[in-house]
Amino acid sequence: MRLDVFTQVPHAFAWLTEQRPLAGILGEELELRLFNYRDTTPLRSGRVDDKPYGGGAGMVLRVDVVAAALEGAYGEAPGHRVIALTPQGRQLTQAVVEELAAEPQLTLLSSRFEGFDERIVQHLCSEAVSIGPYVLSGGELPVMVLLDAVARRLPGALAAGSGEHESFSSELEGGLEYPHYTRPAEFRGWTVPEVLLSGDHGRVDAWRREQSHGRTVLS
Ligand SMILES: C[S@@+](CC[C@H](N)C(=O)[O-])C[C@H]1O[C@@H](n2cnc3c(N)ncnc32)[C@H](O)[C@@H]1O
Description:
It is built from eight helices and ten strands. The chain has helices at residues 14-18, 22-25, 37-40, 63-74, 94-101, 118-124, 140-151, 201-218; strands spanning 2-7, 31-36, 49-50, 60-61, 81-91, 105-109, 115-116, 127-130, 186-187, 190-191. Strands 2-1-6-5-8 form a five-stranded parallel beta sheet. A three-stranded mixed beta sheet has the order 3-4-7.
């Protein structure tokens, strides 16, 4: 997958790109490019935003700035999905993540302050995605959330078997994962369920299915 991110804060992504699973697939399954709106802005002094028409607080990311950034990267209208990260978008779920992970190329647009000039979302993007019903200060964390969730679904990102029985996976019928325990078997009198120490894989599988189902029903 080729994934392009447009941001005012490209250095914010350094930490994520050094971490697994992203670090393990960069340059192979994942080609990640970071674009700074300031590098292509037609405005003086690297400006990218302006005051809102109609008045009010905050600054708005300009449509001409984003158009110039996209033209600089693609020349013409991109033939792939261009996604604005905004709290007003379609809510990110594991199903959306799986859908996006199947794309060969994606562009993610981030904003700050008051957000995007609406014409960016209407005319330069194919869609808008929200990472949840709350407001963050900028789009960098939302982009990183989407990026990490998509990257771990790409081939080679996770060790074999570790991505299959996760919460929201089809193997668990979209439900929550069962609980995990590790050593010590007892700590402060808190014990591990006996079935997990039994060595009986059939009983373990049945217990896990039951736990997964119970948690999902209660959630
Ligand atoms: C302070 S927010 C703007 C909020 C906007 N004025 C509103 O009320 O809907 C600034 C930027 O952070 C990003 N952002 C904040 N919360 C987000 C969320 N829940 N999902 C996706 N992006 C978000 C978006 O890029 C947004 O344009």
